[in-house]
Design a protein that fits this description.
Layout: H1 2-40, E1 133-135, E2 142-144, H2 158-170, H3 175-186, H4 192-205, H5 207-218, E3 222-232, E4 235-243, E5 248-253, H6 258-264, E6 272-275, E7 288-291, H7 293-301, H8 307-327, H9 333-354, H10 361-368, H11 376-379, H12 388-404, E8 406-407, H13 410-428, H14 433-445
Parallel strand pairs: 3-6, 3-8, 6-7
Antiparallel strand pairs: 1-2, 3-4, 4-5
Helix pairs in contact: 2-4, 3-4, 4-13, 5-13, 7-8, 8-9, 9-10
Length: about 450
């Protein structure tokens, strides 16, 4: 009887332990599910690894281990600035010894250095502008005198407006801090609302050139296109980037659909597009489309937790490397056409083989839906197999989104897309930003 009671007690304790472990297991599964959901926001096929530095391996101590060094390579641009001729001389003479303060010193040599400096006080200059108001005795036209350097309206000159644009779009300054900087650094007392008004006026002056940029993009032979979300008045809008070899167009719309492509490119666009697998791009039925291998390989890499998935990813990576090897040399068009057919067949055989594995099916469907558009870069010379150029172009907007969070008005989207497009295009063309802004403002405001 005693043994039976002890056995029952042990069984009861075991049952309680099992219940406790089952409850703990349930909690751990729920926690694991939540962690995976959170991680998926950062680590997914649509987010490049460069955007998640906290998910990269730790590189601290590489120099000590002899595996390399952090920072720019030796001899990178601006490591050593060239000396300028005709610099203003400045002589510094010693009066006493800095240690014992003795006046008994003698000059035994000279040290030469060159420095770039700004004036100690950069203050705005207020001018009273008086313009002649005239009438032509021949055609009776009434007009006011212009000099091409002084805006017809407003309280601010061109140089001040250019500085505001630099602070906003180059330094990524928010309105409040831009106003504080202008006051503290230059003695120009501007309220945040005034800074915004100046930016809006400059954008208004750039509307004509922005429309010309739209037309250039619509006729470009090759375009890299990408889009990213951006909150506008609490609603999800989309920033679209259209990048050609020489131009970059940003448009902000409340749609991620094909209507944006129709607005910018039109139904009959017949150039070449590099993009991801978003189905809106299927609207461009006359275009030659290259789907992004970077997106595909990020997606297939997620399968590496299984043996079949890892092998599938490695085979896809091998095809990508084969693209690179083939395009490294000049090829005749006939060679390109044969290689395109051969690699497309290889891809079809690959997805047919791995379709027997359930874990591979999401990636197989991703490939199969656009099976003829993965090797366009083989058939047409000069096309990249990835959409990295568009992702690089849109990265600046992603940084702005992190800083400001959202646009507070629809008008703000028009101001941003106009100036961001023009400035990015001038940078791509390696033009002098200050000179281009000054030229644009002189032409439309003075």
């Amino acid at each position: 009887m005693v043994k039976d009671r002890e056995l029952k007690k042990k069984i009861k304790r075991l049952e309680e332990k099992i219940e406790e472990l089952a409850e703990e297991n349930k909690e751990l599964k729920q926690e694991n599910k939540e962690i995976k959901r959170e991680l998926n926001l950062y680590k997914n096929s649509n987010t490049p690894s460069s955007a998640n530095k906290h998910l990269k391996p730790n590189t601290q101590g590489l120099k000590a281990k002899g595996k390399g060094r952090r920072g720019a390579p030796k001899g990178h641009p601006w490591a050593n600035r060239e000396w300028k001729a005709g610099a203003i001389p400045k002589e510094i003479h010693a009066e006493e010894c800095p240690q014992c303060h003795s006046k008994d010193i003698e000059k035994i040599g000279e040290r030469h250095q060159q420095q770039d400096e700004l004036p100690p006080d950069i203050k705005p200059v207020t001018r009273d502008v008086y313009r002649d108001v005239c009438r032509c005795n021949k055609c009776k036209l009434k007009f006011v005198a212009r000099d091409g350097r002084t805006p017809l309206q407003g309280r601010f000159g061109l140089n001040l407006m250019v500085l505001v644009i630099f602070l906003k779009f180059i330094v990524r300054g928010v309105l409040r801090k831009t106003a504080v900087f202008l006051t503290a650094g230059f003695g120009a007392s501007l309220a945040p609302a005034t800074v915004q008004a100046v930016i809006a006026r400059v954008a208004k002056a750039g509307e004509a050139e922005y429309e010309m940029l739209k037309k250039k993009i619509s006729t470009a032979a090759l375009l890299y296109i990408d889009e990213t979300g951006f909150s506008v008045l609490g609603k999800n809008w989309w920033v679209w980037a259209f990048r050609s070899d020489t131009d970059l167009l940003m448009v902000i719309r409340n749609s991620r659909g094909s209507n944006v492509l129709e607005e910018i490119l039109g139904k009959a666009y017949s150039g070449t597009i590099i993009c991801d697998c978003w189905r809106a791009y299927d609207f461009l039925s006359f275009a030659s489309i290259q789907r992004c291998w970077a997106h595909l390989l990020r997606k297939s890499k997620e399968l590496c937790s299984t043996i079949a998935g890892r092998h599938f990813h490695e085979r896809l990576a091998g095809l990508f490397n084969e693209i690179d090897r083939f395009n490294n040399k000049e090829r005749a068009q006939e060679q390109r056409n044969r290689k395109y057919s051969k690699m497309t067949k290889s891809l079809r055989k690959l997805i047919e083989h791995y379709s027997q594995y359930d874990e591979c099916m999401p990636v197989i469907k991703y490939i199969d839906f656009h099976a003829e558009q993965w090797f366009t870069c083989i058939k047409i010379a000069g096309i990249a197999p990835t959409n990295n150029f568009a992702e690089q172009a849109i990265r600046e907007t992603v940084m702005v989104r992190k800083i400001i969070g959202a646009f507070r008005s629809e008008n703000g989207t028009k101001v941003y897309e106009t100036l961001a497009s023009l400035i990015a295009t001038w940078q791509m063309q390696k033009k002098d930003l200050r000179a281009e802004l000054y030229r644009m403002l002189s032409a439309h405001m003075c």
